[in-house]
Amino acid sequence: MSSAVKPINKTFAAGKWMPRDRETLVAWMKKIMAKAEKDTGPLLPVVENLKNFIENDAKAYMFFNQMFDEVPADKSKALPDLPQVRDYQHMLRLFNVILTHAPSFDETGFVGFPFNAILNWSMATSGGWAGFIDDKVNVHIKAILDAWGTFLRSPESTYVLNDDPKNGWFGEDAQKMLPNFAEEFVCDPSKPHYGFRSWDDFFVREFREGIRPVAEPDDDAVIVNACESAPFAIARNVQLLDRFWIKAQPYALRFMLNDDPWARRFVGGTVYQAFLSALTYHRWHAPVSGRVVKTCVIPGTYYSETRSVGYDPLAPNDSQGYISEIATRAVIYIEADNPDIGLMCFVAIGMAEVSTCEITVYEGQHIKKGQETGMFHFGGSTHCLIFRPEVDIEFDLNGQTPGLESSNININARIATVKPHKK
Q: What's the confidence (pLDDT) of residue 379?
């Protein structure tokens, strides 16, 4: 594993979910750990439930001890000055602190995945891999993240939406990263917190009308970007089953679509995947016009990463292909108005803390290209568009090669054109 460690500064820049420099992450970890040391009261109920589960389930007890025992062998290879989580009891205390904290802004680095920051070493070990792919473990992780989501949707979470230049989302430093905020997003600067009722309300903010126009709305051959996102991968001739956990992370349609019978209609087709940035828009829009024929939300993992990519400080950032098969995700099947597209599929994939995928359209509804279809709560993650093998699709990604170094393409902007079927 140690030979696969990546340069930290390069990896941390992707998606802006974690700090660009190690000093910021170190300072953040020290602050959270200091608060945890003073937190001597009872654990919150969801954290106490995880503790009881770990201590009463033989496999969980083994995994949660093993994952922290394995960390010291790796930590000297990168971030040797980063304070380490000592054991699962320490982890639980840190979780307890995080559950009443909303992510604050820092111009040098945004710790957008605080639970991920606590687990980023342990989840890369063999014990971490085994533990975080376990269904029973994920039931408890989901409960904790749901509780955090409840806090982020409460008025108490607005304390970071203030004018403090160092940790306020409307302060001087934040405005450098989010210029023209009031002109671009629906808000009222004359009201407290710009009118946002909670942290989550701020994070799922809406663009003002006309800010992201739909590319060629009357041309059904043009496919638009379904999320404000950067291209990650394009795969052709995708298969029903494949070894999705290996380094190349090929797509396995059967697992991506949760063994839906319709998965077979996409065998030999194309998958386009793109990832969202921490600071951008997090609602989904329809890539094509058509009728919604099926929707579902599939429960899954939150902190599982493929071991083939090695240590990943932004895990599961480097594992985005892999998590499209196993993470929590929302699926929307659309029968496009354009017969040259026909049935296509949008898959929103939650990553780490980004676990709540909300679908806002319904089966039988006709939607127009560029219409809102749903959103990620607390941030964004990654998503896929899946096309049948009969679709002759040509991508236009602003001259970019898909990968972690790519840049955002505006939502509703053209990303592909479908050619007519040959007769």
A: 55
- Lowest mean pLDDT, pick from 1-10, 16-25, 100-109, 177-186: 1-10
Question: What is the rounded CA–CA span in Å between residue 72 and residue 215?
Answer: 51
Give 258: exposed, middle or buried? Use CB within 10 Å, 0-12, 13-18, 19+.
middle
CATH code for the domain in which residue 361 is found: 2.70.70
Number of domains observed in the structure of the chain: 2
Q: Are residues 414 and 276 in the same domain?
A: yes
Helices (H), 309-423: 320-326
* Rg of the chain taking only CA atoms, in angstroms: 21
Do 226 and 127 fall within a single domain? no
Position of tokens 């003073």?
A: 38
Whether residue 180 is contained in a domain is answered as: no
Helix (H) or strand (E) holding 417: strand 414-419
- Domain that includes residue 396, residue range: 222-419
**Which range among 27-41, 162-176, 369-383, 399-413 shows the weakest confidence by mean pLDDT?**
162-176
Q: Is residue 64 part of a domain?
A: yes
Note whether residue 397 is domain-resident.
yes
Give me 212's structure tokens: 């992201």
Looking at residue 315, its pLDDT comes to 45
Q: What pLDDT does residue 8 have?
A: 32
Torsion of CA 11, 15, 18, 24, to 10 degrees: 80
Say if pTM beats, i.e. exceeds, 0.85.
yes
Q: Specify whether 142 is located in the same domain as 241.
A: no
Q: Answer whether residue 45 shows pLDDT above 60.
A: yes
Is 158 a member of any domain? no
User: Is 343 strand, coil or helix?
Assistant: strand
Range of 123-127, 132-136, 380-384 with top mean pLDDT:
132-136
Residue 314 · residue 18 · CB < 8 Å: yes
Q: Please tell me whether residues 232 and 381 are part of one structural domain.
A: yes
Which tokens in the block code for residue 150? Answer: 């409840």
- State which of 152, 170, 192 marks the end of a domain: 152
Residue at a domain's end among 152, 179, 207: 152
Mark 399-413 as b/e (b = at least 16 C-beta within 10 Å).
eeebebebebbbbbb
Q: CA 160, CA 168: separation in Å to the nearest integer?
A: 5
> Which residue matches tokens 């939607």?
367
